[in-house]
Amino acid sequence: MRKSLLVLLLWAPLAMALLPAPVQRLDPPAYQAIQRFLLHNRILDSPTDLDTAPYIVAAGNGRVLGAHDEHVHARGDLDPAQPGYAIVRRGKAYTDPHTQELLGINADDIGTAQFVTAGDLTTLAVHRVTQEVRPGDRLLRVQPAIDPANFGASRSAPFIAGQIIDIPRGVTQIGVLDAVTLNKGRRDGVFEGQLLTLIKAGATVRDTLTGAPVTLPDERAGTLLVFRTYEKLSYGLVLSASRPLAVMDRFESADQTQ
Description:
This protein is mainly beta and 258 residues long. The protein folds into 2 domains: 43-141; 148-253, FlgT, C-terminal domain (Thrombin, subunit H), CATH 2.40.10.410. The protein has 3 helices and 15 strands. The strands form 3 sheets. Strands 1, 2, 3, 4, 5, 6 and 7 form a 7-stranded antiparallel β-sheet that branches. Strands 8-9-14-13-10-15 form a 6-stranded antiparallel barrel. A two-stranded antiparallel sheet has the order 11-12. Strand 13 and strand 14 (234-241) form a beta hairpin. This is Peptidoglycan-binding protein. Residues 1-17 form the signal peptide.
């Protein structure tokens, strides 16, 4: 009896470790915020990914610009089995704030188009636009939607620390349900569904007695969920924030059992 109890106690931790990892649950507002964001934002790992993509030659009837409900003509490797394409234009380049390494480029959202007919020039119908479509704009496959069922809340991963380097929607203060760009990606061990701790950088103030600048300690300020990863960059959604956050504030690996 005692031997059986001892074996049970020794195997219990191993058995717990072998259990399937819990799934990170997304409430409807967070899920909707992510899906809206991904409709308008994406990153390419290399400028070559954009430079070699199919491109728009002209709008219908040879006009220079295309708008909603118009047809556009494109050249390149377009798949008729892929009905939806994103129309994008080269945006800002992201570099690491410390090493200056090129991490990726933003593909600015111009709209979406649907495949109509193939030929030497492929014809597509523009279904959504954020601005006028121009010759030279590129066509990329529409990004897949996220599947929260694939978000593992626990996974073996190295300790990760980095910085918020952009707020794609252009605001200066970051709050709950805001999406941000992180300077770490798959090569660093970041995975979709990972929880990260947000850290507010300590402000620099002046000592009133000595006149010398003093940097206050950094403080934990919230939680971030990684929802889309690229080779060197990631997108994260702020799930909680105890204070306003900004570009260059930090993040690090969180306890995935939280």
